[in-house]
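User: Quick sanity check before I run a bigger batch. Here is a single chain. Can you write out its predicted 3D structure?
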Amino acid sequence: MKKVIISMGIVAAVVVVGVFVPIVEVPYRVTVEYEDTETYYEAEPYEVVETYTETVPLDYEVVKSEAYVQGTTFFGSVEVRNKDSTSGVFTVDFLVVYGCTFISPGSIHITSHYVPHQEELHLAPNGKKTATVTVDNDDPASCDVDSWNYDVIPSTKEVEKERTVIEYKQVEKERTVAREREETHYKRVPIFEYLRSVL
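Assistant: Done. Predicted structure follows.
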């Protein structure tokens, strides 16, 4: 019975001490995560129609071309019509090619002989003219016309055109990011524990 009373007394003493021991709030630092909104800029593409100037050849057509040999003379002609709305110069480049064979004692020499010719035709819109070439064969015994050709080189003009291009603009946007910060928290501890930690 005596032991029970002593035990109850000890428990009561502990309870009394526990109830009446002073408690203090002790600060401590904690790293906490939080979400934040930040502003950023992003290049965003968009379409723009722009005007530009381009150099283009005048439009034309070859109405007729012909060639023939009469005696020792070559005749060629090209008729050109200006299909464009702008007047211009149409240069006709001719090239007559002769094949020549030269025979001498003990050898045969084959070669080509080129005869160029150029003529300019000044044509109004829808106008047409004929460029001609005449070549006399200086050596009909050794040379004959192999071929002929021509090239039409028209004037050019500046035209205004449109095209769609991609450009970029800086657009302001927002996004959520994770950040960290230090915070002061408090905990309640008995004064004896607190004193023991600071001493």
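The radius of gyration is 52 Å.

User: Great, the batch can go ahead then.
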